[in-house]
Amino acid sequence: MTDPRLTPLAASLPATVPFVGPETQERAAGRAFTARIGANENVFGPSPRAIHAMEAASAEVWKYADPENFDLRHAISHHHGVPPENIAIDAGIDTLLGLLVRLTVTAGDKVVTSAGAYPTFNFHVAGFGGELVTVPYADDHEDPAALITKAVEVGPKLIYIANPDNPMGTWHSAEVIQRMIDAVPAGSLLVLDEAYIEFAPEGTAPALDVHDTRVIRLRTFSKAYGMAGARVAYAIGARDLIAAFDRVRNHFGMNRTAQIGAVAAIQDQGWIDHVRSRVGVARDKIAEIAAANGLVCLPSATNFVAIDCGQDGAFARRVLDALVAAGIFVRMPSVAPLNRCIRVSAGTPSDLDAFELELPKALAKARAG
Ligand SMILES: *Cc1c(COP(=O)(O)O)cnc(C)c1O
To answer: Candidates 90, 114, 123, 166: which one to mutate for ligand 1, based on the most atoms within 8 Å of Cβ?
Structure first.
């Protein structure tokens, strides 16, 4: 029986978990994974300067964080050359997505995204009573033209796209994304999730234009900056939209240590160059392992690679299950035809050695049924 104290909306929601964590799987298996290469975490970690700053700050964790995120907003402002008034900070893109949906979506409002795109966004839309309208991927890419066509048709509050994309790792050029921004219908806001932008080639991100009210950009310290557990991300957008976050955000929700670490991290771009080069080596290694097993990788502008297992979703699932049973944590897309792939994060050399050892066995098991 449903608790009568829940709102009708809460009572109607499924008990969905957007992602089952690797810790949950480890507890169920009774042992730790050998290689943790399933959640696109950056195994190369944060800047040593960020680690030092967080260590130094840890004894002062008795203090609440600065609710205005003043130092971090100014550091981000300096890095991107946009005014601090155009930057909102919170505990991860996931939190910012929730706040944005709360600010814009009420019961019955429509939201447009791609079938198989980032599920945490969908989770928030459901949680505020919005209605998801999806379009399919085209050739393993999110489809900007189809998203806009659907938006013109249904008049959504929000249109979501990740560039580069998760789970496929594919991307569009800045020109394609700018054309999409220019075509956003009146009354809609484009949510441009750029969680992986630091890994993408030059010319992937359109210029930041803080006067453009049609788009909000989301960036995170979780991926290239290697600080997923710290929970820090930011939105860049028009001043009034950014100011609206103050109406609903948890003003004391930031972790003070993480806030201080993020300032040091964004000031150490040399570390990001180092991470990029290690991720490049890892992506090449994953492609080499796939090729040695007769499989093809999708091109990637992220710190993960989608490997096409060459058959259907059921086959890829068997490959994935065999890898997980062998101590290799990987994930896969949820929707056909994307789910013919498994998604492997850029690991350390030893992570990828373990993957190289287990992949042929997993494929043999999957082929045996
Ligand atoms: C990893 C990821 C996020 C989550 O970012 P956090 O800042 O850790 O909440 C958001 N969007 C996409 C597309 C991601 O892959």
So the answer is: 166
